[in-house]
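Project standup — Tuesday

K.O.: blocked on the structure for the chain from last sprint. Re-posting the sequence here as requested.
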Amino acid sequence: MIEPAAETTFTLAVDAMGGDNAPDIVVHGIDISAERHPQARYLLVGDEARLHPLLRHYRRAAAACTVRHAPDTIAADLKPTAALRLRHASMRVAIDAVAAGQAAGVVSAGNSGALLALAKIVIKTMAGIDRPAMAAIAPSVRGDVVMLDLGANVVCDTRNLVEFAVMGDVFARTVLGLTAPTIGLLNVGSEELKGDDRIRAAADVLRDSHIGPQFHGFVEGHDIAAGTTDVIVTDGFTGNVALKTAEGTAKLVLQLLRQAFTASLSAKLGYLLARSELERLRELVDPRRYNGAVLVGLNGVAVKSHGAADGPGFAHALDVAMDMVVHHFNDRIREGLARIGPQLPGTQRQNGHARNGQAELGPKDGPAGDDDERVAAAR
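H.V.: unblocked you, prediction finished:
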C-alpha cells in the first residue's frame, strides 16, 4: 500500500457483528488500525451491550470510535433477499451511514452476498458502470497482483470485462502504488484467437483504449502466480474458482513442507538451518496480508473482510478501505471511464444471456436474475 499524501480526517463505518469471531476481532482490528492511522475515525455499528465492554480493553479503539446501536445481525447463511429486509442489522446500518454521507466507506466481515446486494441497492452503482466487481490482491513470484472479478458476477459480457480492466488499473495504482500497471485478460490460452467472442472483443477495445500500452493481452492460469501482469481481469465465476484454487494450493504446499521438515531428525535440523527463509515464505503467503476485497464500481467504498479473519487481518481490510478513501479511488475510476467511454460496447445480449444491468450471482453471492423483482420489493 502507498502512503497517504496528507493527513486527512475521515470516518469509516464498521460492521461490528459480521464475521466468525465478531465483535472481538473487529474491535481488536480497529485498535491496530487506530495506531497506524491516527487521522481515521470509526463508526462502530452493532450491539452496544457487547461493544462497550470490549472498548474498555482497547483504549486506542475507544478513543477513535463512535458506537451506533444495531440490534440485529445478518447470519452468514442468510439469503441476500432476506437480508435486505433487516433494516436494523449492523451491516445495513453501516451501509446506510455511507449512503447518508456520514462515513466515507464501510468494512464488514459478514455475509458476502448480503454486502454486495445491500451496497448495490443502498450505496448504488456508479454512473457509467454496468456492474460492480469484487477486487483483491494476491501474491505472485514478482510481487502482489490485483485480481477481479472474484465472485460478484458469474456471467460477464464484453462491456463488463472492459470496465473491470479500467477499475483494476486504478486499484493497482491506488493500493500497489504502480504508475503503469500491466493488464491481462484471463483466458484458456495466450493466442489472440483463443477464447469466446466476448473476451476477444474486450481485448480489441482495450488495445485501442488509453490503457492500450499497458494491455499485455491474454494470460493463462499459471500467469497469475508467475506475476506475468499486475492486473488479472476475468468473470466472477472463473475468478472465484482461481482464487480458491490458489488458496488451497498454498495450504497444500505449507502442509507438505511441514510434513517434510518433521519426517526425521535430519529434516528437523534442515528446518533449523532454513528457518528464517521459511518464516519469510510463510509471511508472504499469510492470508492476513491479502485480506480485504473491494467492491469496486459503487458510489462509495465497500470492503469485504474474510469472515474468519483475526484482529491483524481485519486491520488490513481497514487499511485497504483507507487507501480507497484517501487516494480518491472512485474519482479516478470516473476519469478512466470518461476516457474509454466512447469505445465501450452498449448493454447487449451476449452468449444467450440478457444483459439488463443486474448482477447474475450464485446463491451465496447475491440476487440472481429471477430474484430481481424480490430484491426491488425488499428495499
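K.O.: great, moving the ticket to review. Confidence is low (pLDDT under 50) at residues 1-6, 347-379. The longest strand covers residues 40-46.
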